[in-house]
Amino acid sequence: MTLFQNKWSFLSLNVALSLILFAFISPVYDLKSYINSLFYVSYFYLFFGLIMFVIKGKFIDGITYSFRRTSNRLSKNADYLDDWESKPMPSEVVSPSVMKMFFFQGSVLTVGMLLLLGYFYQM
């Protein structure tokens, strides 16, 4: 867990991951292929950061509450130990620090990718 606390060492790990992805997947070793592998890694982080942002914004809580209530009322074998109202909502489960970490990693990798794209098109 200490790796997740230091965002710069985790960023270097993500750059290394994009280099490994570049080494194994790219058909030609050029700057364009590295930019593509950096795109895959950075938008993975941005995608999951946006999903966490939507969940943290309580968008899914109403739907979850409705499904829990409906399944409790329609179930034929009621479990009296299962208290559906006291279960945490999805917005309570998402940690803001993890969401910020995903956004930071994705945005810094995207800025690096855009800088490399600018360099690529200047050549």
> Average pLDDT across residues?
88
Domain module tally: 1
Largest sheet: none
Q: What portion of the residues fall into strands of 2 or more residues?
A: under 5%
Percent of residues in helices comes to over 70%
Low-confidence sequence ranges: none
Task: Please identify the structural class as seen in this structure.
Answer: mainly alpha
Report on the architecture of this protein:
It holds the Pfam family DUF3899. Residues 35-117 form the DUF3899 domain. The chain has 123 residues and is mainly alpha-helical. It has one domain (2-122). It has six helices and no strands. The protein has helices spanning 2-5, 7-25, 31-56, 61-74, 90-93, 96-122. The radius of gyration is 21 Å and the shape is elongated. The two termini are 41 Å apart. The mean pLDDT is 88.
What is the strand and helix layout of this fold?
Elements: H1 2-5, H2 7-25, H3 31-56, H4 61-74, H5 90-93, H6 96-122
